[in-house]
Design a protein that fits this description.
By secondary structure, the protein is of the alpha/beta class. Helices cover 32% and strands 25% of the residues. The chain is built from twelve helices and 22 strands. The chain has helices at residues 22-33, 52-55, 73-78, 96-108, 111-135, 139-142, 157-172, 184-188, 212-224, 267-273, 334-347, 392-408; strands at 9-11, 15-18, 38-41, 59-60, 88-90, 145-146, 150-154, 178-179, 198-202, 206-208, 227-229, 234-240, 243-249, 252-254, 258-261, 281-291, 301-303, 308-313, 316-325, 356-366, 373-376, 382-386. Strands 5, 7, 8, 9, 16, 17, 18, 19 and 20 form a nine-stranded mixed sheet that branches. The chain has a six-stranded mixed sheet with strand order 11-3-2-15-22-21, with helices on both faces. A four-stranded mixed sheet has the order 1-14-13-12, with no helix packed on it. A hairpin with a 5-residue loop joins strand 21 and strand 22. The longest helix is centred in the N-terminal third of the chain and has 25 residues, at 111-135.
């Protein structure tokens, strides 16, 4: 896109990162550590409610590496997703990009594709945890990180039996998961009464307090010399000879050497300004933050069949869940929220009358196979780091490291091949 009347250039950094959520901030972190002059553009306030880095559960660690597209989701996609009560709800609409995404999603719901996705994601999650453990040694950020392990609770006998049979396979992939024996859950959570058939435990379960982590991380980056421009909207690009010459915003123009788009669900629109198409869909998720009840859990709990999670945040308890393919709207469905609370009460009956502090929804950028898009695009100096889905906090540290290594010409720690941005280009017309 070429501007007819170019605005004055604000600055001339080595790299401009579009997006100040956790994905963009980790790109900036690794780029700055590599010596680059970095500017981050964020359309709202850092850690503000417009960002998924504001209201999610903040899970990191080795749990939750299964891609959204998994065996069994084909029938779920065609039947259950059309019900407004389903954990994953699809609003059918005449949208060519959505229909293409759904076709690709269906093709990814095979054992082979799911296994490949798991390998890519678990590798990124392990590396991300290593990065976070090092980063959170800093006193300013340490208080926003906790690693007490995570409980995976199963309401049904079938769900618990299926999970138990998969433990050995999960452990073989270096995830320290185990079945809790009689009385062990009571020892881990003595205050909390569960109405479930069984539970698993992963001692590597960890989480970040958000948005506190994002705010403190942003402060650290500024101290490192990263320029963070809040309330700055990308408006276009000036492109010449296959590269971006100028990046245009509502607060002036930039002429960087390289550009990284890491703007979450808004990445599709940003990339489109440069003539690049991304195979992404925004998937809405909800969270309900309530007062911490006397019987609340002391560590994260995954309500497995209900596809929901809860995490303790000091005096607060945050419940996250529900997935909706409903476009770019962040409107909150009270019906969906009430369904979340009913699900929680089925697993933890004593939480029934706990006052709610805040209800929030945010958009997660999701690829059809559940694996991010990270790497270079058809424009020589434009890279993307998007598509982390509902596990962005646990993937962004490794994704940002990969971006830094690509631009530095270094051997990547994370295998970039499964993350190729162009891997869907010739799959379906």
């Amino acid at each position: 896109m070429t501007s007819e009347a170019a605005a004055p250039v604000r600055s001339d950094p080595d790299v401009v990162v579009v997006g100040g959520g956790v994905a963009g901030l980790f790109c900036a972190y690794h780029l700055r550590r590599g010596g680059a002059a970095v500017t981050v553009l964020e359309r709202g306030g850092l850690g503000g409610p417009q960002s998924c880095s504001y209201g999610n559960t903040g899970f990191v660690g080795t749990h939750g590496a299964a891609p959204l597209a998994e065996p069994g989701m084909r029938s779920f996609r065609s039947l259950g997703m059309l019900s407004a009560e389903a954990p994953f709800y699809l609003e059918l609409r005449a949208d060519r990009e959505l229909l293409r995404w759904l076709r690709l999603f269906g093709r990814a719901c095979t054992p082979a594709a799911a296994a490949a996705g798991f390998r890519a994601l678990i590798g990124m999650k392990k590396r991300s945890l290593e990065i976070l453990l090092e980063l959170c040694e800093s006193p300013s950020i340490a208080a926003t990180f906790e690693s007490p392990g995570i409980v995976l609770a199963y309401k049904t006998a079938q769900g618990f039996a299926d999970a138990g049979r998969a433990v050995s396979r999960t452990v073989a992939n270096a995830v320290p998961l185990r079945v809790l024996g009689p009385g062990e859950l009571d020892e881990l959570e003595p205050k909390t009464r569960f109405d479930i058939r069984g539970a698993l435990y992963n001692p590597e379960g960890a989480y970040l307090h958000v948005p506190e982590f994002v705010v403190e991380f942003g402060r650290m980056l500024r101290e490192m010399g990263v320029e963070i421009c809040e309330h700055t909207d990308l408006t276009g690009f000036e492109i010449k000879a296959g590269k971006i010459e100028r990046l245009q915003t509502n607060r002036g123009d930039f002429r960087p050497r390289d550009v990284v788009v890491a703007a979450g669900a808004w990445s599709t629109e940003c990339a489109r300004m440069a003539g690049i198409g991304l195979t992404l869909q925004p998937i809405k998720g909800y969270s309900v933050t309530m007062d911490m009840p006397p019987s609340g859990p002391s560590r994260p709990v995954l309500l497995s069949e209900g596809r929901m999670a809860m995490v303790p945040l000091g005096e607060r308890l945050r419940i996250g869940g529900r997935l909706e393919l409903t476009g770019m709207s962040t409107a909150i469905s009270e019906r969906r929220v009430q369904g979340m609370l009913r699900t929680v009460n089925e697993y933890l009956p004593d939480l029934e009358k706990t006052p709610t502090r805040e209800t929030w929804s945010g958009l997660r950028p999701c690829t059809p196979d559940g694996v991010p898009l990270i790497g270079r695009t058809a424009l020589r100096n434009l890279l993307i780091a998007v598509g982390y889905g509902h596990i962005g906090m646990g993937l962004a540290p490794a994704g940002g490291e990969l971006i830094g290594q690509i631009l530095a010409g270094e051997q990547p720690t994370t295998d970039p091949a499964p993350l190729r941005p162009d891997r869907f280009d010739s799959t379906i017309s």
